[in-house]
Design brief:
Layout lengths: L2 E10 L8 E3 L2 E4 L11 E4 L3 H6 L15 E6 L2 E9 L9 E4 L1 H6 L10 E6 L2 H6 L4 H36 L1
Parallel strand pairs: 1-3, 1-7, 4-6
Antiparallel strand pairs: 1-8, 2-3, 5-6, 5-8
């Protein structure tokens, strides 16, 4: 189910601040030094999770840690980012916080940054294929290539078995 949300920017908080704060459409996150540290994330309120994914997020520490992928669409373009819940005074569930690089990817041809984005449940393959971190993107593509190349001998052996089986019948 797609939800429309206002886009705001993530920037590092002033070092003297001990918690996150929100002002003038900017979400100041206190645990980062550069906004590029959150390029692969989208920050939403914790109450947004159930509305996007249709289930509650398990908070147990023993449960398997799985990334929840969110698809963000604006101006006919879309990106996939990992869900991250954060809070700050004034930050509501009608807003989505993205890094400046992620906002730039959603800009239109004239360079106008979007103000509203549609949020929905995303898919893992585009998330890793187009991930902003080059090391994650390359390792995923190399892993996928190795699976394809590793299956070729299996297909060759299966094909030769089928051909051998049918030539014996005739």
């Amino acid at each position: 189910m797609e939800k429309e949300k206002n886009i705001i920017t993530i920037l590092p908080a002033i070092p003297s601040e001990s918690k996150n704060y929100y002002s003038n459409k900017i979400f100041h996150l206190n645990r980062i030094t550069f906004s590029s540290e959150v390029d692969g994330d989208v920050i939403l309120t914790s109450s947004s999770y159930q509305k996007i994914f249709g289930r509650k997020k398990k908070s147990s520490s023993n449960s398997r840690k799985r990334l929840s992928i969110v698809k963000i669409s604006a101006n006919g373009k879309s990106i996939h980012r990992a869900y991250r819940a954060e809070s700050a005074g004034g930050f509501t569930e009608n807003e989505v916080a993205l890094s400046p690089n992620s906002i730039r990817l959603l800009s239109d041809k004239e360079g106008m940054e979007p103000t509203i984005a549609k949020i929905s449940k995303g898919c893992r393959i585009p998330f890793y294929w187009f991930h902003p971190d080059k090391s994650i993107r390359i390792s995923f593509k190399l892993g996928l290539l190795s699976v394809v190349l590793g299956s070729l001998p299996l297909l060759k052996n299966l094909l030769s078995f089928i051909i051998h089986f049918y030539t014996k019948i005739k």
